[in-house]
Amino acid sequence: MKVTTGIKCDAKRIKAGGAAFRIGEELGSPHPRELDLKDLAMYRNVLVREGEIKGAEGRLLRKGKNGVIHVRRGIVPEGRRRFTIAHELGHWELHEEYSQLLCSAEDMRDYGRSPLEVEANCFAAELLMPNSHFRSACGTLEPSMALIESLASDFQTTLTSTAIRFADVSKRKVVVIYHQNGLIRWSYSDPRKKLLFVVPGKPLPAYSSATLELAEVSNRMEHYDDADWFPQVTWEKPDVLEETKRMSGLNGGLTLLWFP
Ligand SMILES: [Zn+2]
To answer: What is the value of pTM for the model shown?
Structure first.
């Protein structure tokens, strides 16, 4: 598995977010709830259609100055459907050299593997969770899955993108970890906060909120005495709280770590 850290992608992430920020500004920086993405796409010369797509969530076709976004019919919840449109719009705005792009559900959760997908996700995050609106919604609230779910519902976007956005925008020191089949696929924290790194590709730590039986796991941020997320650290282990949202069907989940 090829993995890059968030730090290497940082300049491109910022550029992608900047492209979405400028579009928001052109529109008068509305709350994204008031943003009709199909209208916005049309305004950018892109028609959004919903229909059957085999093995993918979204597809962008480009012909000259015009584009078509196909979104798989039946994507639920609404936040996931909106994120898919925003992601494809990101490809439209950022990746002019591609006449066709096909994006899977995994691509929508990609924050480390393909730079193209990471950029489209960063664009979608800024479009659906503009910095100014998101910052005031976060306030000084403490991280928890309940808070991330509530923000995702308020901004009508996905859980994963909201957790990443929280790690970036909130002042809290948070690491977001995506794992599947017992392995850490990627981890993300705001590079400016210089937090300890959770190494991708490694097995999940035993006795953590991500690995214990569901009945033994709390549904709030908690300290797990025997969970070691930082095996590379040989000095005193940091105090960390954690909570995991299991993603049924993916044999995976999303974990929040918080250095309080
Ligand atoms: Zn994509």
So the answer is: 0.90
The β-bridge partners of 46 are: 67
Q: How far is the CA of 108 from the centre of ligand 1 (A)?
A: 7
Q: How far is the CA of 59 from the centre of ligand 1 (A)?
A: 8
Residue showing tokens 């049309």 = 42
Tell how far the Cα of 135 is from the centroid of ligand 1, in angstroms.
26
Q: What is the largest CA-CA distance in the chain?
A: 58
Whole-number average pLDDT of the chain: 91
> Where along the chain do its domains lie?
10-129, 133-258
Residue 55: pLDDT band (50, 70, 90) is confident
Q: Give the pLDDT band (50/70/90) at residue 82.
A: very high
For ligand 1, the distance from its centroid to the CA atom of residue 73, given in whole angstroms, is 17
Architecture of domain 10-129: Orthogonal Bundle (1.10)
Sheet bearing 183-188, strands edge to edge: 183-188, 174-180, 252-258, 241-247
Ligand 1 centroid–CA 92 distance in Å is 10
Give the pLDDT confidence of 98-139 residue by residue, as tens digits.
999 999 988 998 877 788 999 999 999 999 999 989 999 998
C-alpha to C-alpha distance for 158 and 73, rounded to whole angstroms: 17
Question: Cα(13) to centroid of ligand 1, in Å?
Answer: 14
pLDDT at 14: 85
